[in-house]
UniProtKB/TrEMBL annotation:
Enzyme nomenclature, EC number: 7.1.1.8
Keyword list, A-Z: 2Fe-2S, Disulfide bond, Electron transport, Iron, Iron-sulfur, Membrane, Metal-binding, Mitochondrion, Respiratory chain, Transmembrane, Transmembrane helix, Transport
Cofactor binding, note field: Binds 1 [2Fe-2S] cluster per subunit.
Lineage: Eukaryota, Fungi, Dikarya, Basidiomycota, Agaricomycotina
One annotated Gene Ontology cellular component of this protein: mitochondrial inner membrane
Cofactors named for this entry: [2Fe-2S] cluster
Gene3D superfamilies with a match to the protein in the record: Rieske [2Fe-2S] iron-sulphur domain, Ubiquinol cytochrome reductase, transmembrane domain
Protein name as it appears in the record: Cytochrome b-c1 complex subunit Rieske, mitochondrial
Principal EC category: translocase
CDD domains hit by this protein: Rieske_cytochrome_bc1
Protein's organism: Phaffia rhodozyma
Catalytic activity: a quinol + 2 Fe(III)-[cytochrome c](out) = a quinone + 2 Fe(II)-[cytochrome c](out) + 2 H(+)(out)
InterPro entries named among the record's database cross-references: bc1_Rieske_TM_sf, Rieske_2Fe-2S, Rieske_2Fe-2S_sf, Rieske_Fe-S_prot, Rieske_Fe-S_prot_C, Rieske_TM, Ubiquinol_cyt_c_Rdtase_Fe-S-su
Single GO MF annotation: metal ion binding
Other information: The Rieske protein is a high potential 2Fe-2S protein.
Length: 274
């Protein structure tokens, strides 16, 4: 292979593929013998006359330019690298060295681990608290439901010996401010004569206040107050009679009138039902 390098006005040509001897004899090339004569064949194409020592025209040409003065560059021999930059100096099968990435002190990593664990724990606790609060808020009763769940009644608005009927959770509630005579009458009843035996003290928190759900235990009618054979309540639907303590005394009702959950304020001015 021939190549030309241009430097100012001169050409520098690489070593040609073939050269002539000083007297123009047969051409020669390094490592190639041209003195061998081919075997004779019937066509006469490989007789000695075809190798008269004349070199091929392409072997003596140097490109487009005519050589005026030739400087042949000597072939160079160099070390071939696997990589294009530098030779590999490390053993490719050796384990990588990560010593420069390791912390100089184990306590540094420990402190960082404690910090990360504490931070993640705090965030998790905050997220859990928010979730629980939202869940409880969603499941808890709304303000209107709570308003229906409890009912407050001023005791001063109910005179002694009178009944008041209020609505609580869609049901009528009887509140009776009893007199001392009514309390004595309720306590004087023989328990053996009652269909649903229950002492008066078990049905009241304060002797002079009686609180009951005004629904007959027979078929759910609403009894009438201050009526009946026992001076208490009378159910006009099927004739059930209740005494001044709300206990069934006569008629088809099987049980006493139900007593709801209620409480009094510290000054006894407010009665809270529910």
């Amino acid at each position: 292979m021939s190549a030309a390098f241009r430097s100012s006005t001169r050409f520098i040509n690489a070593l040609p593929t073939a050269s002539l001897t000083s007297r123009g004899a047969a051409p020669f090339s390094k490592g190639v013998s041209v003195n061998l004569i081919a075997q004779h064949d019937s066509h006469g194409e490989y007789d000695p006359m075809h190798r008269a020592g004349k070199a091929a025209s392409f072997a003596l040409k140097f490109g487009r330019s005519t050589v005026r003065s030739g400087i042949n560059a000597a072939p160079s021999v160099g070390r071939r690298m696997i990589h294009t930059s530098v030779a590999a100096e490390r053993d490719p099968v050796a384990s990588p060295d990560f010593s420069k990435y390791r912390a100089s002190s184990s306590s540094t990593n420990r402190n960082l681990s404690y910090f990360m664990i504490g931070s993640m724990g705090t965030l998790t606790a905050a997220a859990a608290k928010s979730t629980v609060v939202d869940l409880v808020t969603t499941l808890s009763a709304s303000a209107d439901v709570l308003a229906l769940a409890k009912l407050e009644v001023a005791t001063s608005s109910i005179p002694e010996g009178k009944n008041v009927v209020v609505s609580w959770r869609g049901k009528p509630v009887f509140i009776r401010h009893r007199t001392a005579e009514e309390v004595e009458e309720a306590n004087a009843v023989d328990m053996k004569t009652l269909r649903d035996p229950q002492a008066d003290s078990e049905r009241v928190q304060k002797p002079d206040w009686l609180v009951m759900i005004g629904v007959c235990t027979h078929l759910g009618c609403v009894p009438i107050g201050e009526a009946g054979d026992f001076g208490g309540w009378f159910c006009p639907c099927h004739g059930s009679h209740y005494d001044i303590s709300g206990r069934i005394r006569k008629g088809p009702a099987p049980l006493n009138l139900e007593v709801p959950s209620y409480s009094f304020s510290d000054d006894n001015e407010t009665l809270t039902i529910g």
